[in-house]
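Recap from last week: sequence in, structure out.
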Amino acid sequence: MSPAECEWYRATFGELYPLLYPHRDDAAAAREAADLVAWLGLRDGRARIVNLGCGAGRHAAALAALGLRVVGLDLSVALLEHARTRPAGAPPLVRGDLRRLPFRPAFDLALSLFTSFGYFDDAGNERAVREMARVLLPGGRLVIDHIHAAHLRRTLVPEDTRVVPGCRIRQRREIVAGRVRKTMVVERGGAERVTLHEDVRLYDPDEMRALLARAGLRRVGFHGSFAGGALRDDSARMIVIARRGPE
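Predicted structure tokens:
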């Protein structure tokens, strides 16, 4: 891949992002946030939460609406600006890199939702997990919502085209060296054409467990839904939960 493609997230998570994933809306985030709150027992509102890779702030806003203390972090200027324009307002938002989080250990829960992890090489992903663990208080929990690799390998659609208002998007996907790579050609107005990339590391449960253990996280569990349901063969998502041990 070219140097630009290696940092694909800088271009892909920009102004066109809402067109690429229109189905990921506020209603879905509200349902997922409610499920997380019930599953993790966060009803009293005292927990401090950081939403890492918060994007346009869907989940951060939904959690804040439930009375929780939330901080959102993302690298994308465009998506953070979108988050700040939410009608109901946004919780505190910070721009930063997952590999160098600008926080001290202060959080009871760190959330990485909608595949906002796995963008870097293996060393970079390991640094990101160590940072996620570092900002947790002793006993704090990390939740990573990631691709269920085994399910994706069985169901990958190599190529498709979809049309959204004002755009035609052609998508090609492949799995190479343990990563799922997607190329999107976005055509707007019949003339403008933009090519975007995604390149995400896949983790099987044993790999993820080892990765988290190296960061000092324990009691790792794997689930297939935000409500804590079992991880099954037909689960599209792998929801990972782990806990930071006491000092």
